[in-house]
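writing this on my phone so excuse typos. first protein, seq and then structure
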Amino acid sequence: MNQSGAVPDSQGQSAFEVYLRTGRRGTNRRRQDVELKFNPWHDPEDGRFTFSGQGRYYGAGGDVGATDDAERSGQRQRSSRTGSTDPDYSRFDPRNPRNYKLYTVKPGDTLSGIARFRKGLTVADLEWLNGISADAPLQIGQKVKVPNQESLEAGRDAKNQLNALLLYAETHDHHLPPDPAHPPSIEQQINDPTYWHPIRKNGYRYDLDLAERPREIRGEVSIDETAKRSRRNQRSAGGADRRATDDGGHYIAARFNGPSDAFNHFAQDANFNRGTYRAMEDAWAASVRAGHRVTVDIVPHYDGLSLRPDRIAVTWAIDGQEHFSTFANESGGRRRGRR
């Protein structure tokens, strides 16, 4: 048994490892019999998968090493005329002339500017495909290979599919999904309540999804004026989805003994944070100080895989009498509901 807990085959590979490398689910198939490739990017020398843009690209559908007859014939003719030893690229390889166009450099062009011609294209992609460095200035008239959008989309889809398969295996004790060739997407898996997990801290319960985003927070409100904040977590709340107009807000404020952990922070519109959300919290504090029992149930809502909630539904009860409001995470954060 290997470190992952999977039982290896006679070649020392687990069934999951064999599947990632080959696309086959068997465990006793000889390596030389393997033909299909699930991961489209792999090293042609040893067959191991690589990161996107490295090694050779073997997309779904079709023989892994083959191009069509016309392409093969054309490459052989070119090689015989020029004496070239250029490799016989797969039809899905980014270096295959089918998958890129030649762009002629004009005055003022840079690799970063050329990368903007295609959605999802990076300077690193252009450096790798052309064998050049972004540090070296481009020459007017120089030819630069620019991938077709279709080939970029195919590479991105293959990478997303592989990551979805890895996530599924990680959360299912290294088992494969029912249809390994079409695993549930990352978004589907993250939004599946079956795999949310609870964390209890400072008297509150946080149900987190696979992206560690809070899906529900509940508990009884207490007062602790000495509790410390985490300025680092406040600054990083929301990650790349954070807006310039956001604060690092708390689901449960520090004065209510809210934990300083990252999961208690979210990117919150500054006006909303300091306006209607703060007014609601002040009402909780006044009720607790007056000797009332206050409980809260907070449910954030996210758009897709965003780390920034777009709205927050809050139910709170004072001595058992419930109140409910939904706040938009926007300037003003106007409230809708009962009070």
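second protein below, same order as before
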Amino acid sequence: MATRTIHLPESSYELLSAEVQRRGLAPDALADELLRTDLATSDGEDLDATLQSLAELTARLPEIDGVLLARDTRAQLEQRGGS
């Protein structure tokens, strides 16, 4: 593994430090994960192709009635004694 130094603005370093604490990771591991996630593309596809794939996936998902889902969830909670 090569060692590299990255200079960050103080505000970015604070964000990185907070996320390191939240996730319980080493700073280098989190920085590597964030860089790979942000910079890598799946199978060399560009952003437009990735967005098109996402649109196709979304089109295949079933429609959900949010109001009906909320009512059913509320009814289930009330049956269990919740409010």
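Helices lie at 10-23, 27-39, 47-60, 66-79. thats all i got for now
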